[in-house]
Amino acid sequence: MPVITCIQDLRRLYKRRVPKMFYDYCESGSWTEQTFRENSSDFADIHLRQRVAVDLSDRSTASQMIGQDVAMPVALAPIGMAGMQCADGEIKAARAAEKFGVPSTLSTMSICSLEDVAEATTKPFWFQLYVMRDQDFVRDIIQRARDVKCSALVLTLDLQILGQRHKDLKNGLSAPPKPTFTNIINLATKWRWGLGMLGTRRRSFGNIVGHAKGVSDISSLMEWTSEQFYLHLDWKTVAQIKEMWGGPLILKGINDAQDAKMAVSIGADAIIVSNHGGRQLDGALSSIRTLSAIVDAVGDKIELHLDSGIRSGQDVLKALALGATGTYIGRAYLYGLGAMGEFGVRTALEIIQKELDLTMALCGHRDIKTVDRDILLLPPGFEINR
Ligand code: GLV
Question: From 4's CA, which of 110, 242, 268, 340 has a CA 20 to 30 Å away?
Answer without folding.
Answer: 110
